[in-house]
Amino acid sequence: MMRVKQKRLLAVIFIFSIFLTGCFPGGKKTRTQSPNRVEMKPEFRRDAESHYKLGSVAGYNGRYELAENHLKRAVELDPSYVDAYNNLGLVYAAQNKFREAEVCFKRAINLNSLFDEGYYNLGILYMNQNRQEEGLENLLKTLEINPDHARALFDVGRITEAQGKLGDAIQNYLRLTELQPDNPVIFYRLGWAYFQRGLIEASFEAFTKSIELDPDNYEPYYKMGVVLQNAGRIDDSIKMYKKSLELFDKNFDAYMNLGDIYFYERMNFREAMFNYRKALEINLNSKVAFQMFEETLNKMQTNDGGR
Questions:
Q1: CB 54 within 8 A of CB 64
Q2: Of 8, 52, 54, 106, which residue is the least packed, with the fewest Cβ within 10 Å?
Q3: What CATH number does the domain located at 7-146 have?
Q4: pTM, whole model, 2 decimals?
Q5: How far is CA 152 from CA 83, 128, 212, 251, in A?
Q6: Rounded Cα gap, residues 264 and 277, in angstroms
Q7: In 110-128, which positions are buried (b, 16+ CB within 10 angstroms) versus exposed (e)?
Q8: Secondary element (H or E) of residue 207
């Protein structure tokens, strides 16, 4: 019996990306191009830009109150400053001021209906509030405007994967492998989506690539072990589980899967006992681990100490 730790973190995973989006100085500044826009004096525009940069740097460094003050001043001086509204929204979101953040992101979008970052941040904000339908709608709008928006592709991939729409998830991940061919996380997600779809060989190749790009991450080795175990390649599966535990020895599921292999496949009860005991050291409250530990102990007693 394989035990696979699946992470259903539709909302939680996004809180980190929402503040990192666009909250830094420099780059092209987005403002409206409305013919009715009132022309500003050059010195006011320079002041707005200075406050934008100072606020963005402060926000990036976690000084939210200072960031908020500067960015509010930027939009006071230049009410058409799309990026300033966007970053102000990010600062509000980082402080859990979700209503204020929503107002800022919507203001940015109203000023520039093709501002993909505004739709993306609004989508992530909704996801953090468990407003899944509205969140996905805005993330898809981001991709409608910018089909190569990497973060939106990844997040929509994660959402559709969790929804069981594996074909859509795989399509997004494949596009990301073209945009970011050196990103091990994308190949990791692709490998797991392939596995859930039953595409074992494709899953194996994706995890192999993830390991090649980041050989010190234990998770692809663990998931590769699951794939190989599912394919009946038990010896290779054992190697992958053990490699994952060399890199991170607190992986409860790896010990449990090794225990199951030795118990059910190899009938090597001493090895099974060792791995179930290690699993219990990590999670003493696991009823399954305790049950398997007792069953293994009984097997060892009835088989003269096991193998």
A1: no
A2: 8
A3: 1.25.40.10
A4: 0.82
A5: 18, 15, 25, 30
A6: 16
A7: ebbeebbbbbbbbbbbbbb
A8: helix 200-213
pLDDT computed for residue 174 by the predictor: 98
* Bridge partner residues of 81 (DSSP): 31
Tokens representing 38 are 């009132």
CB contact at 8 A, 203 and 173: no
pLDDT at 304: 63
Tokens of 263: 């118990």
E strands, the chain, are none
Question: Which pLDDT belongs to residue 3?
Answer: 55
DSSP structure class, residue 81: B
CB 136 within 8 A of CB 123: yes
Average pLDDT of each block of 10 consecutive residues along the chain (307 residues)? Answer: 38 34 43 39 70 94 95 96 97 96 98 97 96 97 98 97 97 98 98 97 97 98 97 97 98 98 96 97 96 94 65
Question: What is the SS3 assignment for 31?
Answer: strand
Domain ranges of the chain: 7-146
Q: According to the model, what pLDDT value does residue 9 have? A: 25
CB 240 within 8 A of CB 224: yes
CA distance 214 to 220: 9
User: What's the chain's Rg over C-alpha atoms?
Assistant: 25
Instruction: Name residues whose C-beta falls within 8 Å of residue 12's C-beta, 6 or more positions apart in sequence.
Output: none
Biggest alpha carbon–alpha carbon distance for the chain: 91
| One-letter amino acid for residue 287 of the chain | K
What's residue 302's pLDDT?
86
d(CA 175, CA 288): 40
Tokens coding 104: 């800022």
Cβ atoms of residues 176 and 152 within 8 Å: no
